[in-house]
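Predict the 3D structure for this chain.
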Amino acid sequence: VILKPDAVQRALIGEIIARYERLGLKLVGLKMMVPSADQIEQHYTLDPQWRRVTGEKTIASYKSRGLTPPSEDPLEITAKILKNLKGYMTAGPVIAMVWEGAHAVELVRKITGGTEPRGAAVGTIRGDFVVDSYIMADTDNRAVRNLIHGSGSVEEANMEIPHWFSEKELINYRVSREDVM
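Done. Predicted structure below.
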């Protein structure tokens, strides 16, 4: 999980961490930093299919809303998305975290809410704290401000964790609820 600069600026760090803790997840890695543009680009392109898949999803999203996408080329679309993400994610400090627990990735995705805050369910972090949308972000030529990046799958988490943390930065410990669970 990465709390993006808007989460830090809006002082939502504690609220977001508390929600993950209440699920029963255990925080095993945490650090604050201002990432470089290269670090952000590497993060989003750890999966070699990210550019194509994200571009195709974006094009489909435009069409599903009855809008004309800015391009029919997925790679052209993601070049712009990546440029905007680098500007957004390097604009201030982020909080990188590693959460551990049963179904951790699935639970984080569920409580975080949909990527586009406008469509995120009430009760999720994005649904409760964000009013931004893809339309607003596109109009302003920026990345959508959605507070959080959460790995989309266990495989993605396994690529992202070593990108942000060394093994020494991850703490192996037990909490009392592990004996109950």
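The two ends are 23 Å apart (CA to CA).
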